[in-house]
Predict the 3D structure of the following.
Amino acid sequence: MTAPLLEVRNLRVEFPTRRGTLVALNDVSFSIAQGEVLGVVGESGAGKSMTGAAIIGLLEPPGRIAGGEILLNGRRIDNLPYSELRKLRGREIGAIFQDPLTTLNPLYTVGAQLIETMVTHLPLNPAQARAKAIEWLELVGIPAASQRIDSYPHEFSGGMRQRVVIALALCAEPKLIVADEPTTALDVSIQAQVIALLKSLAREKGTSMMLVTHDMGVIAETADRVAVMYAGRIVEIGAVRNVVRHASHPYSAGLMGSIPPVGRRLDRMQQIDGSMPRLSAIPPGCAYNPRCPKVFDRCRVERPELMPAGDSLAACWLYAEGAPRHA
Amino acid sequence: MFAFIISRILQALPVMLTVALLSFAMFAYVGDPVAIMLGQDYTVAQRDALVADLGLDQPFFVQFAKFVVNAAQGEFGLSYRLSRPVAQLIVERAPATLELALCAAFLALAIGVPMGVYTGLYRNSWLSRFFLTFSLIGVSLPTFLIGILLILTFSVWLGWLPSFGRGDTVNVGGWSTGLLTWSGLKALILPSITLGLFQLTLIMRLVRAEMMEVLRTDYIKFARARGLTNRAVHFGHALKNTLVPVITITGLQLGAIIAFAIVTETVFQWPGMGLLFIQSVGAADIPVMSAYLLLIALMFVTINLIVDLLYYAVDPRLRIGRGKGAH
Ligand SMILES: Nc1ncnc2c1ncn2[C@@H]1O[C@H](COP(=O)(O)OP(=O)(O)OP(=O)(O)O)[C@@H](O)[C@H]1O
Ligand code: SF4
Ligand SMILES: [Mg+2]
């Protein structure tokens, strides 16, 4: 196996607050291979967006990376000076945000925003960039692209805007896309189309993707591997077919309990009792222990690290040597 | 576009007519113009002749219509105090006020906007704190006090700048300008600072607040995620989005500057319309007062129109919305 495109090692993100430091991400490690799609799931507040923000270097102050490292193609990027990091953004790592209604600047045409992005990163003159911009709009399925290029964002529907956002994220040909709930804000009827577009473009360009979503259907259809997050940690990570069909960690099992069809949101199908602890009140031992149906003594004392569990890795004592295996 | 301008002008007409009615009412009901014009000794015949001559025996609306027609042609009769045509007096004085007001507005924008951008971007730097403290002074000290303090410092103690008047002026095509002579420029400095300081601090605070607001938006985050340079993000994307409120306030304030020039012109004995107005009030010189009133109203209306046109230029959403009557 070749070296992964992205490697995150023991990432820790802290928020200093007046009432002490909140640890939003703790000991998060994973990697994404060339061309691979990693799905990231978990309840609201688990730290999914935070992980994405840390990777593109856009944590909102006072949030900061307090430990660990992030490597892109073997090169550390978490400690780059701002100007170096900027050159990476868009060019090496693209980002897609949740709400296409707010991610585009209302005062510039979509063409101007595309051209600006390409000219910043690629050796193109304005005329070439414009031609490229039209190509990109065609590629993401905007009809009459050569006319629509001079339209403003508000002249597009939500789905079309998200297509524009996808074009913007991909236009400087990054190797990795961080897509944070790219379809959550869209009309249910077009979510599947947008995901399909994203998937096919990523495949075509060989782009890797970190895909954050609440939609298990999307994960099952799109991702190669999936990471399940809970209270700032990864609790299970493995191939989609393993995690989705035979979840090892009790929390993942709860999440995957029933896989809704594409477009149905997980949080409306919630079936795990209780709610995720706040960052300031994470219980000792396994953070999931107050809600876990399989909790036993060790869980309340010692925190489990990721360990082999079937074909995946899970942070659960059930998979340790000599545990009461009733999984 | 053209239709838009026409409709705005039509909307402005009732405003202008109302102000005209007010200033006409001053003519008709404040003081007795006949008595003022005839002096102490006159016969009844003389009086009747003058009343007929001035049309004062005609019905109210006929008189008002005449007044409006005359006013539209810049015809306001003779000043009681100076016995010269009012229009001529105003034309003589207007350049002084306009140069002062525009210079003050320019100062307010040229210094206020960069200060606002800076304090919005670097909220916690000591320079930002200094600017904010300074702006408190600008907001809280009354104009005349600022003027007097400036005169005390720069004219009386340091002797660098004149304490009153316009300095030497040059007549360029009927416009007497102080901008072309050294003494004229020197004389302009203190009054413009006095007049513009409040607006400067207001614009600074406004731009700061708007910048902070805009910098939090998704499209700014996305612009950063696309790897645009700080310069492009701050000035191309953020600042442009603050322009609509800044244009509104600047427009309103330009009107206010011209209107409030009265105080500054009095402090600096600046030979402009404001000083003329104050002197006219002292002498109950109604024609000058009503002409001034109408002129100020006309300026407000014109500035409002310009502000609307600028919106149109800055924000594409307004261009579409207006045509379709939809958002
Ligand atoms: N400025 C902040 N100060 C303190 N804590 C914060 C701040 N921003 C986010 N957090 C916390 O960090 C944690 C992770 O948030 P994150 O946005 O990554 O969640 P998420 O998994 O993306 O959830 P969602 O599904 O709702 O998007 C949350 O518990 C949140 O409360
Ligand atoms: S470690 Fe214990 S509490 Fe945590 S998930 Fe496993 S069984 Fe449940
Ligand atoms: Mg999120």
In short: The pocket of adenosine-5'-triphosphate (ligand 1) is lined by residues A 15, 22, 24, 42, 44-50, 60, 63, 279 (CB under 6 Å). Chain A is about 30% helix and 25% strand. The longest helix of chain A spans residues 188-205.
